[in-house]
Structure formats: structure tokens, C-alpha cells
Amino acid sequence: MLLIPSLKHTTKKLGINSLPTASVLYLSLQAYRGDMEPLVDVGSYVRKFEPLAKATGTFASTLHAPVSGTILEIATTAEGTFMVLENDYQEVALTTTPPTLSNFSVKELRQLLTNFGIEGAGGSRFPTQLKYNINEGSIHTLLFNGVECEPYLSADVVLMMEKTKELLQAAQLLQRYVKANDLIFVIERQQKALFKKLTDTAALLNLSIQICQVPDTYPQGGELQVIRSATGKILKKGELPLSHGILLNNVGTLYAIYKALFQGIPFVERLVTVSGNNEIKMGNYWMHIGTPISHILTHLAPSQNIEMYTTILDGAMMGQEVRSRNMGIHKGSGGVLLLDKWRKDTQNCIRCGDCINTCPQGLMPLEFLKPTNDKATLLNLHLDTCISCGACDYICPSHLPLMETILKGKKLLQS
Question: In 135-178, at which residue ranges do the beta strands (DSSP E only) sit?
């Protein structure tokens, strides 16, 4: 585990801010596996909250219009395929009606989650409806992950501080439907004010919750690490928490569930941390899904020569460098970072073992540097259990391209 310096302590104090709506939105058609099929044609006028695209089958989900306007094109960039929506600023919206909460089954809950486009907001974008594919009485523990261990990111902490009642109401409803005994929120130890806010609000709602406090280290917020800290159970990579009676959601996902079930509003916006160097207007901003990076930087880094910096979507450790600034944020985007470019001079491996000691999965990352096109070799090294946290790459004193080779190996395993 690592303690990584960043500006998180600054942005978590800034609360929630708003950002002007972009004139053009780039809505990713990428689903958890594969692409979504458009439900509207290029040139169509769409209303706010209208379904625009859908993934069917096991990983079913839905994409909705965050604003009203016209579909200009389906564009393909280096980052994927996007539906381009021109905003007419009229806010012509479908009438939204929350479902009746007293009389639907878990099966109907899954369909509601699909229809409202609820996906993992912690980064994975795993369709939330799949997590609720459960048998009655099979879940004893509902976990909500508020451990935002990525450097710079603070959106989840701020969301829990400012939307505490809403999050607990949604958690209470889900507990009722899955009939879980234990309701546990997992947060970092440093969040003392949040601990008190959760405790006091739960008491007002007459809701019994547990709060598990974990070390302020990276990657403590990973699914396997959170489950181990909160329940003591050690799951293997690929092993489903459901098989152990555990159901885990990120708190951003939980808030999207609140909006859907209590207000009838689909997942069309999320809270995003904007941070990086001291010139940018740091903070946590409500943003429509599809807001392009160029729009964010224009408003929050207007004086920057942004070509001098690296733009990262999501976290500094597990996020991706943005190559096209027309790329829009998606439902799993927790941050937009503008960071100084860093040139690393690669040296020879000194066999220090730092990568091994740091790996939360107990792997030997230096072994992945050896050239191989043999899947069996990579499986013997347990590459399939790597969670791609980047801790080994960060700690390496020789600046070896560990994550680069790991991702190449993972791509080989998927082929």
C-alpha cells in the first residue's frame, strides 16, 4: 500500500460547484463489453432524459440524453465511438415519474436499474443491474464503497458530505429489497467529519449502519481490498462477491440509484473532481455525461497553455491520458486532471523488490517484463489476478514500463 501526495486535501474542502453546460456533448457508445446500439438516427431531435442507445443481453444498460437538442453525428475517435448531441439550451424534457417503491420485486428492480442506465460510477461502468441478479435471502451484507484512494480525487467524499441523507435513504431502500442484515459504509480513516455526518444522519433516519474505516493508502479502495477490510473475507480476482453473500456499490452509483428510484431521473450527470497544477480552478463539479474535456479546460483552465500538460481522465494512477479533447466524460469518470508532463529515464532493474512488496495482489510485477507471447506463462504468473492499480509502476526506482507490459499481457490474455 502507498501514501501518494496530491491535492485531495484541498479539493475535498471546496464542496460542490456547477459548470456551464457544453454546447455539444460527446456521449460514449461504449458499453461494459462491446458497444451500445443507437435508438435514434443522426438528425433526430431528442428530449432531455430520452433513451439514446442501449446495450442488450447480459450486460444490458441504457444511455440517455442529458439535454435536449439534435443528434449531429456518430463520431469515431482514438478513444472510441461517440454520439454527438448539439444542445439547444431549451431543456425540453420527458416527464419523469419515480417508480412506486412499495411494490416491486428484485427482478423488477433490476429492470429499473437497466432502464435508468445505472452503471458503476467508481470507474468500472459495470452494469449495476447485474449485481442485483440475486436469489431472495442470498445477500447478508450490503457494502457501499466511499474509499476514494486515487490521488487528487475527492468527488465521492464531497458527495457523501453533501448528499448524506439521500445516500442513506437509497441504501435503506436497497437493504429492504435484498433483505441484507448488515449495511456497511467504508471510508478512509482521515474522513473524521464524514464519519460523524454519516453517524448523525443515520440516527435521524432511525437506520442502523456500520462504518468501516480503512487506512488512507492506495489502492485501499479496490473492490477486493474493501471487502477484505469490511468483512475479513479474501476473494480471488474474478470471484463474485455475491457468492459470499456480499453486494458492493460505489457511493456515486448509490446516488445515481437515489435519483432514479426517488426522482425518476436517469443517470445523466455525475460529480467530477477537477484538479492538477495550481493554475487550474480546482473543485468538484456537477457535469452532464458527455461533457467534452475541451469544454472543461476552457472554463477551468482558461490561462493555461494546455499543450504543455498531460490531461488525464479519471485518476492519476488508473486513469487514461486524453488524446482527443473532444472526448466526453462517461458514467465512470471521477476526475479530470491537468498534470505536468513527466519524462522518465528508464534504467536497468536493480532487483530491489519494491514492486513485489507494493503489489496488493502479491504478484511479482518484474516478471512481466520478460518478453512472452505465451498465455500459459502469463497465467502461471497470475497476471489475470492483477487489478491494474499501477502501484508497481509508481514505486519502481528504475522507471521500468511495468504497466505498459502488464496491459499488453492482459490484452494477449483476452485475445
Answer: 141-145
- The gap between the terminal CA atoms of the chain, to the nearest Å, is 31
C-alpha closest to that of 96 among 74, 117, 124, 82: 117
Residue 162 CB partners (closer than 8 Å, separation 6+): 15, 16
- In 96-199 the beta strands, taken as DSSP E runs, fall at 141-145, 182-188
- Across the chain, which has 415 residues, the per-10-residue mean pLDDT values are 80 93 97 93 98 96 98 90 97 94 85 96 92 91 95 95 98 94 96 96 97 92 92 85 95 98 97 87 96 94 76 90 88 92 82 92 90 88 90 91 90 84
Phi and psi of 255, rounded to 5°? -70, -35
What is the C-alpha separation between 275 and 19, in angstroms, rounded? Answer: 14
Q: What are residue 125's phi and psi, to 5 degrees?
A: 60, 25
Our measurement of the distance from residue 50's CA atom to the centroid of its chain's CA atoms, rounded to an integer in Å, reads 23
Beta carbons of 40 and 52 less than 8 angstroms apart: yes
> Which residues, 6 or more positions from 315, have their beta carbon under 8 angstroms from its beta carbon?
123, 150, 151, 152, 153, 334, 335, 337
DSSP letter for 332, please: T
Total-model pTM: 0.93
- The CA distance from 372 to 377, in Å, is 8
Which set of grid coordinates corresponds to residue 163? 448528499
Q: Determine the residue type at 195.
A: F
